[in-house]
Amino acid sequence: MAEAARHQGGILLEGLVKRFGPVAAIDGVSLAVQPGEFLALLGPSGSGKTSILMTIAGFEFPDAGRVVIGGEEVTWTPPNRRNLGMVFQRYTLFPHMTVLENIAFPLKMRGVARAAREEQARAALRTVRLESYGDRRPAQLSGGQQQRVAIARAIVYRPRVLLMDEPLSALDKNLREEMQIEIKQLQREIGITVVFVTHDQTEALTMADRVAVLDHGRLQQLGAPRALYEAPETPFVARFIGETNFFQGRAGGAASDGALFPVQLDNGAQIHALAVGAIAAGARLTLALRPERLRLAPAGAPGLAAEVREAIYVGNATTLLLRGADGATLRARIPAGAGFSEPAPGEHVTLQWEAGDARAFAAAA
Ligand SMILES: Nc1ncnc2c1ncn2[C@@H]1O[C@H](COP(=O)(O)OP(=O)(O)O)[C@@H](O)[C@H]1O
Ligand SMILES: [Mg+2]
C-alpha cells in the first residue's frame, strides 16, 4: 500500500500559464517530474518558481494548462485534497505547541486517533533525527532544528509529494550545506518525490536529480546538473550556472546542431565553435566558453591574444583575469599541478581551447 502510494508521486505540468495583471508569472511551462525524483526549480527572483510551486500545491489556479499528479488531473482540486507536503522558507511552526504536537497536528486534522498520531509523529521525529526534542517548544530549537521539525510535520502523513520553497535560505552557510545533504538523504530514504525551489545554483546542483532553470516564467532548460553545466542550451543558462566568458561574432557558414563550424569573432579572431541548435550562414552569434577550458600559450601562438591583469591563487587553481585585444575582460582558471608558471600582470599571452568547448548560440532575432 505504502509502496504503491510512492509510485503515484509523478507530476505533469502541461502548458501552464499564470498571469498577475500584465505579468505572466508562468509563461507556458510544461515539464514532467518522475515518481521519487528530486527536482529543483532554479531561477533568479521573480522568475516564477513560487508561482509554479503554488500551482502544483493548489494555492494558485492557472489561467491555462493542466496539473496532473499521480496520473490524476488536479488542476482545480483544492490543496487539502492533493495529499502533498509543504515546507516554506520561514518556519511556520505553532509556537504554543510542543514539537511533537506540531508534528502530530496534520494527523489530528485528518482525524487520526490519538495513540496512532503520537506513534507516527515520533517516527517522523526519528526520521529527522530529533527524537529527544519532542517536548520542547519551537522557540527552544535552533533554526536548523526548527526547519527539520517543519519537514517532519510535512512528511508525517506520508504525502506522495513534498514541495519546498527556499526552505534553507534563512539558515547560515554551514548549516545550510549540512541540511542540503540531510534533506537529500531523507528524500532517498523515504522515496518521496520532491520539488524544491531555490535561487542558489550550488544548492540546486548539490541536491537535485534534475534542475529546471527558469527565467521570466519560461523554462530555459531541464536537465541533470552535469548537462546544465557542460551543455547549456541558452546563453541565460550558461551565465546562470557557473562562470562563463561571452563573445559576440558571426557565423562563417551554416551549421546543424552539434556541428563544429567557422566563426568570425567581433574582436577579429577566426575560430571554430560548436553549434547549439541550427545556425544560418552569417547569423549573429553569442559564444560561451568556460574559464577552466582555456589554456595559456605564449604570445604570438595561434588563438586569442590577451594581456594578464591579475593572477589570483586560490589553492586548487589559479584564476587569471585577462584583457582581450578589444578590451573585454576574460577569465581563465588553470588547475594546480598543470605544470604552469604563473604569468605576471602585464604579460602578453595567447588563449587556446578545444573548438567544441566554445558553444555558439544564434542571437535572438
Ligand atoms: N500574488 C501576486 N500578485 C501579483 N504579482 C505576483 C503575485 N505573485 C507573483 N507575482 C509576480 O509574478 C512574478 C513571479 O513571481 P514568483 O513566482 O514569486 O517568482 P520567484 O519565486 O521565482 O521569485 C513576479 O514578477 C512577481 O512579482
Ligand atoms: Mg519565490
TrEMBL record:
Pfam families (UniProt xref): ABC_tran, TOBE_2
InterPro entries reported in the protein's UniProt record: AAA+_ATPase, ABC_SmlMolc_Importer, ABC_transporter-like_ATP-bd, ABC_transporter-like_CS, Mo/tungstate-bd_C_term_dom, NA-bd_OB-fold, P-loop_NTPase, PotA-like
Catalyzed chemical reaction(s): ATP + H2O + polyamine-[polyamine-binding protein]Side 1 = ADP + phosphate + polyamineSide 2 + [polyamine-binding protein]Side 1
Name by which UniProt lists this protein: Spermidine/putrescine import ATP-binding protein PotA
Function, in words: Part of the ABC transporter complex PotABCD involved in spermidine/putrescine import. Responsible for energy coupling to the transport system.
A GO cellular-component term linked to this record: ATP-binding cassette (ABC) transporter complex
Gene that encodes the chain: potA
Species of the source: Teichococcus deserti
Family: Belongs to the ABC transporter superfamily. Spermidine/putrescine importer (TC 3.A.1.11.1) family.
This enzyme's EC code(s): 7.6.2.11
GO terms of biological process kind: putrescine transport
Residues covered by the ABC transporter domain: 11-241
Record key words, sorted: ATP-binding, Cell membrane, Membrane, Nucleotide-binding, Translocase, Transport
Enzyme class: translocase
Assembly and interaction partners: The complex is composed of two ATP-binding proteins (PotA), two transmembrane proteins (PotB and PotC) and a solute-binding protein (PotD).
Alphabetized GO MF terms: ABC-type polyamine transporter activity; ATP binding; ATP hydrolysis activity
